[in-house]
Design brief:
The chain is mainly alpha-helical. The chain is built from eleven helices and two strands. The chain folds into two domains: 9-131, Cytochrome c-like domain (Cytochrome Bc1 Complex, Chain D, domain 2), CATH 1.10.760.10; 148-230, Cytochrome Bc1 Complex, Chain D, domain 2, CATH 1.10.760.
Length: 235
């Protein structure tokens, strides 16, 4: 079911700002700060793209697991086929305990316990999603990537070679695409996968385990790993 907005956005925002949870008012500004816990995997707002998780533009009223081109877990796609639509209520329930709300999904986030935190986050997310949806919610990541990553993105990696190289990766990242405190790398957009590896190589991302794994990878090896992991369908 697709939910249509019939009230002016200004009226919706006024309503959101006056909502209360218990004795406390909902605070979308605070919700923006809380979104930092989500921003490693999700983008929202103008120009948002798919990352580890799908972008969240236009998420309210959208059927779960329905962005073309993003490789969802079979559990989340099945939930959408069975009628799960994202609303303030369903998003609240999902981020409280993602693994309990949709059994078998691959979201690594363990959950947001406090109801006030969830309400503030959902209020901000609804505000930003209404105000600045991306031009095409099905858009793949196409932004220009500079430096070494750009050269790798022009290469056609060998997925068979990538599978051969993947042994170190799958000691931590599950090949099924499931996540247990470690983000899934299965089915990621190619650009995001390649950029991430170079960010670890150059210390833009700080993780000693990842840096040690990728620091000596050649461009050919990164292209092969990208071809292998981005081509796998999450289970």
């Amino acid at each position: 079911m697709q939910i249509e907005a019939t009230a002016p956005i200004s009226a919706i925002l006024l309503f959101l700002s006056s909502m209360t949870v218990g004795a406390q008012e909902v605070d979308p500004i605070r919700g923006e700060k809380l979104f930092k816990a989500c921003s490693n995997c999700h983008e929202v707002g103008e120009g948002a793209k798919n990352k580890v998780g799908p972008h969240l533009d236009g998420v309210f009223g959208r059927t779960a697991g329905s962005i073309d081109g993003f490789k969802y877990s079979s559990a989340l796609k099945r939930a959408g086929e069975e009628g799960l639509t994202w609303s303030a209520e369903s998003i609240d329930a999902y981020i409280e305990k993602p693994r309990d709300f949709v059994k078998g999904n691959r979201m690594s986030y363990r959950g947001m316990e406090k109801a006030q935190d969830r309400s503030d986050l959902v209020a901000w997310l609804e505000r930003i999603s209404l105000n600045s949806p991306s031009a095409d919610i099905n858009a793949e990541s196409t932004s220009e990537v500079v430096g070494f990553a750009a050269a790798v993105l022009e290469m056609d990696g060998d997925p068979d070679y990538g599978e051969y190289l993947s042994g170190d990766c799958v000691t931590c990242h599950q090949i099924s695409g499931q996540a247990d405190g470690i983000p899934s790398i299965i089915g990621l957009p190619k650009e995001y996968f390649v950029r991430s590896l170079f960010e670890y190589k150059t210390n833009v991302r700080q993780n000693e385990v990842m840096k040690n794994r990728v620091v000596n990878l050649s461009n050919e090896e990164i292209a092969a790993l990208a071809a292998y992991f981005t081509g796998i369908q999450p289970q």
